[in-house]
Write a structure and sequence with these properties.
Largest sheet of chain A: 2 strands, antiparallel
CATH superfamily of the largest domain in chain B: MetI-like
Number of strands of chain B: 5
Oligomer: heterodimer
Strand order of the largest sheet of chain A: 1-2
Shape of chain B: elongated
Number of domains of chain B: 2
Number of helices of chain B: 11
Distance between the termini of chain A: 22 Å
Order of helices and strands of chain A: HHHHEEHHHHHHHHHHHH
Shape of chain A: globular
Number of strands of chain A: 2
CATH topology of the largest domain in chain B: MetI-like fold
Strand content of chain B: 5-15%
Structural class of chain A: mainly alpha
Strand content of chain A: under 5%
Amino acid sequence: MARNSQSGALLLRYVLKRLLWAGVVLVLVSFFAFLVIQLPPGDFLDSYVETLSRSGMGVDSATLASLRHAYGLDRPMVVQYWEWVTRFLHGDMGVSLLYVKKVNLIILERLPWTLLITTSSMLLMYAISIPVGIYAARRQYSLGDFAASLVGFVGMATPGFLLALVLMWLGYLAFGISLGGLQSPQFMQQAWSWAKLKDLLWHLPVPLFVVSIAGMANLIRTMRATLLDELGKPYVTTARAKGLEEGVLIRRYPVRAALNPIISSGGWLLAELFSGETVAGIVLGLPTIGPVMYRALLAEDMYLAASCVMVMSILTVIGFLASDIVLAFTDPRIRLS
Amino acid sequence: MTDTAPSRYSASQWQLMWAKFKDHKLALVSLGVLGVFYLIALLGPFLAPCDSWRTSQFAFAPPARVHIFHNGRLMRPFVYGLKMTSDPGTFERSIAPDKSTVLPVRFFARGAEYDWLWLVHGNMHLFGVDSGGQINLLGTDILGRDCFSRDIVSTQISVTVGLVGVFITFVLGCLIGGVSGYYGGVVDNALQRFMEFVTCLPTIPMWMALGAAIPTQWSNLKVYFAITVILALRSWTGLSRQVRSKLLQSRDEDYVIAARVAGASDSRIILTHLLPGFASYLIVSLTLEIPRMILGETTLSFFGLGLRPPTVSWGVLLQDAQNLAAISVYPWLMFPAIMVVVCVLAFNFLGDGLRDAADPYKE
């Protein structure tokens, strides 16, 4: 009992430490996002004026100066950063010049789709790569192992945008329809119904495949390699010598040990998924955050771009935190360090 | 091992590794493939039959076939010239081989002028056709430029981006990982946390944000270096983590303590005692970092946030293949994609082979 409470205290301390650290990372991430706003030459009013003058409207310098003052662009960098962060925390992310809309509305509209794509890709990734990795390690150099490695290598070496393009092309050849987007046009404005859900499920496989293939390749390789290492260890031989049934043995010990690196890479995988989601989103036209960030960057709509970067990074930090905590539960050694 | 090879007991570390590496057939083949890629990059304009920026009226000409029979007679290899035909009904213009013009393929032909490596001015090409004609082994693009030549010139950019980027990665990774691992304590802690922060930023969005910030008026060379720096900003973390853990591991080894007691300086300990111990691991992880950079550059350039025309890289070329119509009607525009996949695969196989060879415990 005493040992248990001690272990609980250690776990709590560890979790608190990670939480504190996640806060520090978020501050650093906000610096980076602010940097994204500041990097392009000129401030966002300059690009606004440029947009206006391109459409034939002029802005006189007095109006410009007052606007600049109103947006606080004439104040020192630190003050601007502080204002931006506090506004961000209150849910006011500025206005997008590109979409002529509040940034937080754009983000809110697209966040559920982003979460849907990333979480289902993640589930798919684990559901496929763990069993395949186990299979490949147990039947090393078999045909299945070879096939898994082949898929892994292709997933690793093909740029995501290329995969998306080729799949769209194949889909077009096979079905004569465009596989882009997540919904058929006729369902866009409709309320949710079974038909709409079915339509969505039809559109999901291609994006999920494109988003998860790179991470999946990586996971299969890691799972296979760590399990092979574990299978060669003396405790496995001992368990076998004592007559433990092979299936039970594999599941109970080496697989559990080999899962730890997989769990600890969860946060990193989430960061990869946002990369994949951005690339696939642009090519396939998904209603997620990545493509909006891309369009915002091209149009120098910096508040929108920075908010997208910020939101994706916040989600990644949460992912890192979650995987750290899960790992502390599954691998008791972590709590001690 | 053959008889001429040194015996296992007297062979040096590198000789042992080479012996093991030679058994890894896939890695050996990959080394050869990469050799070809870098040879293409080195010889560049000499291998390209045309000036890769010269436009022509023949847009989207399909790849030219090399024939050896003309009117039933055996001839030296030749291609037919191109002619523009228009459909009498629809007035649609199309390009077809002009069976009346025979353009023999000449080796070491004189053609477009170029500067080789900014050093030698020349106009000799490995092969080409007489002036006035053009040979488009992989067809032409929307402006009638020769795709084969453009593929070759873009190889120069794409394969070197990885090398330059890896050099920056190496410097950053060794510096930060070295300081972190050798000094430990507060410095180590702070640097570790900073590294975790960099890992928390999603790679492609971060690259895109930085790529978009490169001023449009920058010269091609400056953009090229800016892109390599941006790619390296993300990749140093892996290397520095390795350097750090190896340093931490060996810092308290007996031989290091012995060297310190004997009065060796920090730099001497690091360079002559510690570095040889893990140099092979560094080479492996750098090798595996190059393909990631190549993929990164390709992706950024494809989306128009990386290198920009007139610089051509594989990603820039693939911009032309952005829509389904281009892929199905002009499939030869996709050729750079094959080069990307082959090159990245080769680097990965090479890295795997090197990893196995560098691991002294693996038989």
